[in-house]
């Protein structure tokens, strides 16, 4: 494992980068800014390695349009409608962004914070543990929260992300990683030819502002039926109002089948043979196909990110759950521990 200074903030604080690898040829780079996976190199079927995670180099982009790329987002991943958080009879007003909703923890969420990082080892796995302290009232959220995320890479190329959090007062927590994958390689075209399978019989339709409409609906007979692997481009070109509503693509939450640590999704690139299997303990998977990329961002490859340049598979609780009593709860109380695990198994075939 190596550690270096990737950049410095205007106030002089340094952004650290850790690089660590596995015998399977998978190598990860993580940044202390946003506890972020900045790059992940994986071999194709012929052993050729490529970075399969979108990312930008400059700090200006990481505080701007690329703020969520590979980042640990929170306190609350996804959307809270109207910035309204009801909890124990009190409605807390959260900081909001465009549209008047709270997205990924607010305008100054965890993705734009410096986390404290330190190398860790667990048996044959090595990686980095990040920790952050979020004070009471941060972005409007109640309770002082301590959060952690640990990246560990195993000898077989499996990347595990384990999240934890505690609070001193009742609050809500929903953490995830917002990496964008392109298994052909970062900056190498789009993911429209990738095959995607999602282990879910239901999804949550959204309104024009991507807030859930209410109860989950069956995927049967819709482009959201990915219980068998389907080509992404074929699915998102179907004439379905939910596809159009999200900007001609996916930006939706799937209600995952089963409980405990189980397979959520499989993504594959037929051209390179690269494949990633995603397993999680979370009840939902937000799939976003990069519908709004417009070429204004340039990646580390030096190539612009056009629409569908990457796909995010965000394991998490459901959007707007604090306002939806029928959704799995995201409440965390003093004395309790928030725990969440997601695994990404990279192979080539």
Radius of gyration: 19 Å
Tally the beta strands. Answer: 28
First and last CA, distance: 28 Å
Number of helices: 3
- Uncertain residue ranges: none
Secondary structural class = mainly beta
Write out the strand line-up for the largest beta sheet, numbering strands in chain order: 11-12-13-14-28-24-23-18-21
Q: In percent, how much strand structure appears in the residues?
A: 35-45%
Q: What's the mean pLDDT score?
A: 97
Shape: globular
For the biggest sheet, the summary is: 9 strands, antiparallel
Give helix % range: under 10%
Topology:
Layout: E1 2-8, E2 14-21, E3 27-31, E4 36-43, E5 49-51, H1 59-62, E6 72-73, E7 79-80, E8 84-87, E9 90-93, E10 102-103, E11 116-122, E12 125-134, E13 145-153, E14 158-167, E15 171-172, E16 176-177, E17 180-181, E18 195-198, E19 200-204, E20 217-218, E21 230-231, H2 232-236, H3 241-245, E22 251-256, E23 262-268, E24 274-280, E25 284-288, E26 311-316, E27 331-332, E28 338-348
Antiparallel strand pairs: 1-2, 2-3, 3-4, 4-5, 6-16, 7-10, 8-9, 11-12, 12-13, 13-14, 14-28, 15-27, 17-26, 18-21, 18-23, 19-20, 19-22, 22-25, 23-24, 24-28, 25-26
């Amino acid at each position: 494992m190596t550690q270096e200074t990737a950049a410095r903030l205007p106030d002089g604080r340094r952004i650290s980068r850790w690089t660590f690898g596995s015998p399977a040829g998978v190598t990860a780079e993580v940044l202390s800014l946003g506890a972020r996976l900045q790059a992940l190199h994986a071999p194709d079927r012929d052993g050729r390695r490529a970075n399969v995670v979108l990312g930008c180099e400059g700090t200006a982009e990481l505080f701007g349009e690329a703020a969520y790329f590979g980042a640990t987002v929170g306190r609350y991943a996804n959307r809270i409608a109207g910035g309204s958080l009801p909890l124990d009879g009190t409605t807390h007003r959260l900081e909001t962004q465009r549209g008047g909703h709270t997205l990924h923890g607010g305008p100054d969420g965890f993705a734009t914070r410096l986390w404290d990082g330190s190398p860790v080892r667990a048996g044959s796995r090595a990686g980095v543990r990040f920790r952050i302290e979020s004070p009471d009232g941060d972005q409007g959220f109640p309770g002082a929260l301590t959060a952690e995320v640990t990246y560990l890479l195993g000898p077989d190329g499996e990347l595990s992300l384990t999240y934890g959090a505690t609070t001193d007062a009742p609050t809500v927590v929903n953490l995830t990683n917002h990496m964008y994958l392109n298994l052909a390689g970062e900056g190498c075209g789009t993911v429209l030819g990738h095959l995607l399978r999602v282990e879910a019989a239901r999804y949550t339709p959204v309104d024009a502002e991507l807030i859930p409409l209410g109860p989950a609906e069956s995927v049967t007979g819709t482009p959201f039926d990915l219980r068998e692997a389907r080509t992404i481009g074929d699915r998102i070109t179907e004439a379905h109002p939910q596809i159009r509503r999200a900007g001609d693509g996916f930006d939706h939450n799937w209600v995952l089948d089963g409980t405990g640590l189980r397979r959520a999704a499989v993504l594959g690139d037929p051209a390179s043979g690269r494949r990633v299997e995603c397993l999680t303990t979370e009840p939902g998977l937000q799939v976003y196909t990069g519908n709004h990329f417009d070429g204004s961002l340039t990646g580390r490859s030096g190539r612009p990110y056009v629409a569908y340049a990457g796909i995010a598979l965000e394991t998490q609780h459901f959007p707007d759950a604090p306002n939806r009593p029928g959704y799995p709860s995201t409440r965390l109380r003093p004395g309790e521990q928030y725990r969440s695990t997601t695994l990404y198994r990279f192979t080539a075939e």
